[in-house]
Records
---
Amino acid sequence: MFRTKFWLAAIGIALLLTFAFGPGVLAETTVGSTSGKLAVTPAGYDDMKSVLEKLGVAPEELTFDQMTTAAALEKYDAIYINCAGEAESPSDEMVSAIKEYVKNGGVIYASDFAAGVVEKAFPGKINFNGGSVSSAHIGSTGDVAAKVVDSGLASVLGQTSVTIKYDLGAWVVVDSPGAGTRVLMTGDVPTTGYDASAYQNLDYSDSEKLKEAMEKIQSGSTTTSNTIKDKPLVLTFSEGKGEVLYTTFHNEAQLTKEVEAIINWFGIRTRAGRLASATRELVIKGDDIALQEIVDGINKGETKTYYFNATGKADFKLTLNFGGSELGMTITDPAGNEVISQDVQKPPYTTSVQADEGKYKIVIEGKDVPENNYPFVLLASGPKSAAADEIIVGTASDNKSGTSEKSIFQRIISGFYWAVGIGVVVIVLIIILIIVLIVRASRRKAPVAQNPEEKKE
């Protein structure tokens, strides 16, 4: 009897621990990374190291020769590949290492000439003008009126258009996004055609010599000038567990306040890449898709305001995810009524909103953050019919985007579903054990027939 009670108690404790700590494990595994190590390649036409340092982040410098094995890259949460000649023609070893790094959850930022890395490591994700990077060096100098077509980025910037200055010609022009690739900004691109043979013997290892050669090509071999309408300027895609952010422009000569905000956002967005992936994995399930993704940074005591445009045809959810500490979130409906006010200390935090038609105002406050420009993700999710703005974040059924819906088996072995699965198994075992004990007890109480010989006596 003692052994029976012991096992009943043990199973009961296991059941309690499963449900008590199961959700806690989910919160830990889905928060994502915001404070890991960052690396940046040497400055070329780009200098993302200076951008990150202004944001209060000190990345390690990583040369192209050091980027030849996945083991050398895996200690970094994100790697920034500056626009430089060496990025145009990466070695096979570097391409293989980056491909493995991203597949395992790493995040890459690449700009302009780093298209060579993107093309070789992730073929088909971005379609470059003319079919290859080598034929895509047709971008001309001048101002481009860029449209911010991603509603999340537009909410961060507070505007849907910005002027981008391209001060150097022969920049890489993108033709179209590949399967599963999202476009964040577009614009009408000024182009100049050049003699293709002039590119065959360029020395990409020396940025200064390359710059001089480009200027000679542009001044002496011009054949055509044209403007290509509505081409992607900034794109992002998932590969395996990781992400890549590619931009045709960089931070050289970008002096306006609006463009500086975009460049700073590149730094924060790449830094929070793993956090964003973890948040999407958490909320994209069933019929719910990611309606709007906001990635931003915040300081202690600072407040930031964003908007979600709802149709009122379906309810939506808001998920706030960050590395820890404390953020406040206040949601106001289109009529000006405060519907939710919550201080969040244990992310991720998800709340459901019964939607009316119109713009919802979301205010995030930095209650207690460990550093300036502390990254966070605010993700609106729900059925497609809930969002009035164009949805380009991705859907649960898009297998090529890296955000595909998991199978039932995958759900059971991960996070909350794992905890529920174990709990159900434990409950079934308890029921079986109780039945066995009842059967045994009934057998012991059953009357025993007397011996006939004993009756006679």
Note: DSSP finds 13 helices and 21 strands in the chain.
---
Amino acid sequence: MKAEGLINRACCFASPSTQSVPVVRRPAPGFHMTKRFIGVVAWVFLGALGLAAQGEQIFKGKICWVPGERAAVLGESQAAAQCTDARAKRGAKYVLSNPESKTVYQLNGHQKPKVLAGNDVVVIGTLDRATGTIDVADMFRALPPKVTRAKTAYIDCDACPRGMAAAWLAAFQELTDWGRFDITPDPRKADLIFLFSANPYLGDYVTRDGPDKRPVSVDITYMDVVDPNTGESFWDDSRQWGALFVARATKDLIEEFREELKIEERATVGAELSRSRRDSSAPLSH
């Protein structure tokens, strides 16, 4: 089933909680997936929406730390303060926190919390209600609102010799088929830059003079979704598929980004509905 159909099936709101759908990751046949790929999309908000205990679910929040062994209930100021410190103190635990609902979940079985400390994230995992712990299958940085609001895009294949030259046309075809963005030939008119390269992005799209001058070995296809005003990378991933499969790797990376963007867009709708329900059920003040 296509991703769109699965998303539509997963995105039916139920009252008072949203329905929960298992998350299935689809590896490409014959290739090693370097990072993550989400096949079925669902969303579950911390505290605001109900959480099913069976099967993998998608959670959103911020990676923070709390002292001690167990999950805690934090005030908004406490959670904000702890999210600013990237290093947990001795004995502290990295957790997924939602200051709005003042809830915290412990995270089990993943090494990324330390790397993503202080960031808004999407977590795929299974919740143990009894202990307040999410058994994490995968975790990645959430997309910022600027990405979900973007309408135009510019494609840049940075220092793309030999086989990497296939990335630009493959990206243009995939983005055109998607239809989500208007492709512009002027990066100054773009909301987002889709940057492809055989080298990791250095974050210098705005500041450097000319193309990347590092030596190129066409082995890994890197994709970054870049802010054209600041050079910040909003999203990145790669495929180590070699020079003969640059076009296929490019399309696969865009498809992965496409599904994650749909998570963010559906999550925004879910948050607004949940907030509206809370407001409508709140007692009137006199």
Note: The longest strand covers residues 57-66.
---
Amino acid sequence: MDRNTKYSLICCAGVSLILAIMISGCGTLDAPRRGNEGSDIVRAERPLNVATNLKFEDLPVPAGFSCLRDQSFVFQDGATRVGLMRYAGRPDANQILNFYRTQMSLYNWDLLNTVEYGNTTMNFIKGSESCVVTIEPLTTKTVINIIISPKTGSVSTGFSFKKDKF
């Protein structure tokens, strides 16, 4: 298999992973908890710190999260990056949501949208790349999925086509 074919297959696999995770992310994050009188409980939460060991220097992960290596995939070739990185830890899903809302902008990622329904999915763009962060609150832990890939239409296949001029 030549290099362009391998590259195309890897990019297609990355896009497929993004779609699969986005489709499976349903439900809502925990609603605000209420006290006995029906008033909201106000908790002062410490912001989460950034982990020191990152797969990509511009994709922050909260401190205390462990990489699930057997469920992660990373490919980097020059300026192209494709990957699905999964991390597990204990902080509350709302803390993680706030972490990514503040931290990604510090790394020059622009938030496009947030979908909250069970899992929370946040879509970011930066230059010619897109990043999808999915937060999965589970019973005993929280799982973070980070998918990075080229934006649609920004992948070069190595082929060029001339447009006919009329």
Note: The domain at 3-27+46-150 is CATH 3.30.310 (TATA-Binding Protein).
---
Amino acid sequence: MIAPARLLTVLLVVLSTAACATVVSPPAPVEAPAPSVSPGVAPAAHGTRNVDVTFYGGPDNDPPGSTDIAYPNGRHGSAGGVGSYDDPVTLATDPRELPPGTVVYVPRFKKYFVMEDDCEDCIAEWGAHRRPHIDLWMAATGSTLPACEQTLTPDAPVPVEINPPAGRPVDLRPLYDPATGSCW
């Protein structure tokens, strides 16, 4: 027979050990985080689509005469670029059509462009009719810049490639050269 004092000691040891025991559950499954997309902005697709193409420069920028862009980034703090894959030219559109940072290749001009700015007409057309329209940056200044914008604007939608790979043919001549007034 166990003495009551000893029984009490054994019982206390068993109870204190049980109270300190930790139940280990397997970790809960971790869900992948949802993609980070601003409300109302769909991720840009890949592939080719036909879009209306227009051009803009400093005189028709907002504010007029500036090189300001709506979405400054690590690539450009203001409108610019040469048209290569590594330094695409600024383009403006509705951010619901192409999210900022989307790269576009325009075979007609053999240049890469990147969505970095808003385009008032593009936003109105996309909002009303889902009509794709991009506005391509030309230059900050130039006496014949508006005429060049008109000359290069196609009469019908043109094919562009959304999120293209590097390696497409590139023509690094500027669309408009303010020093000479020459239009691509």
Note: Helices lie at 4-20, 120-129, 145-152.
